[in-house]
Amino acid sequence: MGIAVAGIIAGIMFLVQMVLYEKLWNRSVEVKIKFRDDSVSAGNETVLSEIVENRKWLPLPALKVKFQCSGELKFVEDGSSKVTDMYYRNDLFCMMPFRRITRSHKIRCVKRGYYGIRGIDLVGADLFMTREMVESRPGETHIYVIPALYVTEEIKSAVQIISGEVLSKRHLITDPFAYRGIREYTPTDEAKTVNWKASAKSDELKVNIYDHTSVSTVEIYMNLADRQIARQEERNERAISIGAYLTKVFLEAGIGVSLYANGKDSIHKNMLCMEENHDKGQLEHIYKMLARIDLSLGTEAFVPCFEERLMKNTGQMTVFISPDWQPEFQDLLCRLEKNRQFLWIYPDAETEEAEIRNELLSCVLRIPMMMQSRLLVE
User: Fold this and answer.
1) Are 86 and 55 in contact (CB under 8 A)?
2) Which of the listed residues 72, 118, 135, 222 has the most CB atoms within 10 Å of its CB?
3) pTM of structure
4) How far is CA 281 from CA 23, 65, 256, in A?
């Protein structure tokens, strides 16, 4: 009789706890997943934190937190093997009442990109592990993996030459808005510089003095066309890394940068078109724009997109970074010879001989892709 009563009581308790857990298991349970850093350079490490809180009196003997992220974000403790393009994470927590648990995972950011975790699945169980309850929750956390800077001695030399030419030209151009003072007229002065009001007061011609302009810009174009050939993605990634390095060096030298690419933004799906920027404080923002170029979305045709802009004679120094050497691109460069001073940086592949036209050879800088040590991870 006693055994039967105990069995009935145990059965009632079992059913009660089942009902309780079914209704209450996910109440007052808070889960947050976040990266320690907003951005990190490709090849560097960061930390991903899981913060789980149980803010009620009911214990959770087994709570699974599941999420997925890109396979390019390596969990260091899991080794370096990559099974698929996505990484599926499943962590088990035992949550006592009114308790918080924080787990930190070291992440190695293997490849440039914009990566996010856009949802969390919670799986709870009752006291006797007889059934599981599942809830999906929205959640948004992301990280920018900015390009590692790529530099060779050849690139350094080219940058020094470009910087010297641009900085010397800025003193040859006056800025009509940078007024500095008044002086007496000389026969070599242009009529438009005469200050008629000051001349009337002094009964002799006076002219305005203007400062030299401090505006000088280099235009950088990245042609990331995908020709579906071996190692094309590697060359395009190297082109982006070179573009990041050039942008950094020019901005830090006080030279403005305009940056264009025919790759598509992973968020807005448009091409990268950054008009003239002189603020080196914006470098982090530019790096993030480069991180968001998603080569898997394909590219726009380079020549139709930028030909009209390039054919305008702006007098600006132009740098092309293009692994693509197809005829239509070289045709465009040949037409530019009289309009612009330019340099074509070609991330070279040792297995391929690019058919570069003789008239362009003096404008081409071929960069080998073998030496990984030339990557500057900052």
Assistant:
1) no
2) 222
3) 0.81
4) 52, 39, 12
Task: Considering only residues 200 and 221, tell me which one the structure prediction assigns the higher pLDDT.
Answer: 221
pLDDT at 201 over 50: yes
Given this chain, do its domains 29-146 and 149-170+215-376 carry the same CATH topology?
no
Averaged pLDDT of the chain: 83
Q: For the domain made up of 149-170+215-376, give the CATH fold.
A: Rossmann fold (3.40.50)
Q: For residue 57, what is the DSSP state?
A: S
The residues spanned by each domain of the chain are 29-146, 149-170+215-376, 181-212
266-318 confidence digits (pLDDT tens)? 999 999 999 888 787 889 999 999 999 999 999 999 999 999 989 886 677 89
Long-range contacts made by residues 266-274, C-beta under 8 angstroms, separation at least 24?
266/113, 266/114, 266/292, 266/293, 266/294, 266/297, 267/114, 267/292, 269/297, 271/300, 271/305, 272/222
Q: Tell me the residue type at 85.
A: D
* Model pLDDT for residues 35-44, shown as the tens digit of each residue: 999 999 999 9
Three-state SS for 346? strand
Q: Pseudo-torsion of CA 118, 122, 123, 126, nearest 10°? A: -170
3-state SS, residue 124: strand
Both tokens assigned to 281? 């404080």
Q: What is the pLDDT of residues 82-124, one digit of tens each?
A: 456 788 999 999 999 999 999 999 999 999 999 999 899 999 9
3-state secondary structure 58-87: CCEEEEEEEEEEECCEEEHHHCCCCCCCEE
Helix and strand counts by DSSP (H, E) for the chain: 7, 22
Assigned CATH for 29-146: 2.60.40.10
Torsion of CA 69, 71, 72, 77, to 10 degrees: 90
Residue 221 CA to residue 225 CA, distance in Å, equals: 12
